[in-house]
Amino acid sequence: MTNATPSSYALLFFQGAIWGSSFQAIKFALEGFGPMTVAAGRIGLAAVMMLLYARARGHRLPRNGRVLGMLAIVGLFNCAIPFFLIPWGEQSLDSGRTAIFMATGPLIALAIAHFTTTDERLNRFKLLGFVMGFVGVLLVIGLDSFSAGAAEWLPQLAIIGAATSYAISGAIAKRVLNVSSSVFTACVLSSAALMTLPASLILETPVTDLAATGLSRPLLALIYLGLIPTGLAFLIRFHLIKTVGYTFVSQVGYLVPVFGVLFGALIFQEAITANIVTGLCLILTGIFVSRLSARHREPL
User: Fold this and answer.
1) Which of 26, 38, 45, 186 has the lowest tally of Cβ within 10 angstroms?
2) Is 299 part of a structural domain of the chain?
3) Which positions fall inside the EamA domain (predicted)?
């Protein structure tokens, strides 16, 4: 493992931009496909890409039933659930606001780790970071949303649910040992594809939708989602973890919501209000403060 180089930072920013752009691509894909089909198409394409990558690296898939079962559970929480909830929520949410809600994942992970581990308990820094992030979320949601009815606040809670699902998957993934990153991801994506593809065929009409849209913007957006924000972004992530470490890679969490808000404003002319800016700053500051605990581990 080496120190971060200019090329490492360039890849980190590229990864943040890729993930930030996924929220706009989802908007385009929803013009021709339902949310479950968007999830299934994205996951299926990325699964094929990662299976080919793992095979090219000479890595074999595990045969242990317990390991495969754990990877399937990770696939459920890391891909199947959030990749459906995000487009479902984005049917009525701005893409930039969706990106901000997804940034709450690291803060939600703090609470989950407190109850599921013995070495990652909440301390004063983590608690302060969590509270700051919670206040930031309330600002982005807007308290008037709760008086406007379920149609207003349910999509926002769906995105927070997706972020929670990611955090749960992280806690489970730690229990899967001795599996290479490429095989791990290939198995996770493949299991999620086996969950979402049948659901898409049952709940929606992907074949009819595909025939109707043809090679148009929704299909191109779906292909982009599978190959770039899902497939390519994973490869960049693995490369950076191997060369400069996970702590460096985790900084992408600061970039994704910023790019998401900027792309939303540029592509869809989404409004950037004072509440959105303040809420985003509180969430990102909360993430930063919570990570100060790496050097201060006094428990509550």
Assistant:
1) 45
2) no
3) 9-141, 157-290
Q: Is residue 300 part of a domain?
A: no
Domain-embedded: residue 141: yes
Query: Is 0.90 surpassed by the pTM of this model?
Result: no
Residuewise pLDDT in 10s, the chain (300 residues) = 567 788 888 988 898 899 999 999 999 999 999 999 999 999 999 999 999 998 998 888 888 889 999 999 999 998 999 999 999 999 998 998 898 888 877 777 777 777 776 666 777 887 888 888 888 877 877 766 555 556 677 898 899 899 889 888 877 877 887 888 888 889 999 999 999 999 999 999 999 998 888 888 999 999 999 999 988 887 887 778 767 766 677 777 778 888 999 999 999 998 888 888 888 888 888 878 877 755 544 444
Name, in order, each residue with C-beta under 8 angstroms of 239's C-beta and a sequence gap of 6 or more: 11
Q: How many domains would you assign to the chain?
A: 1
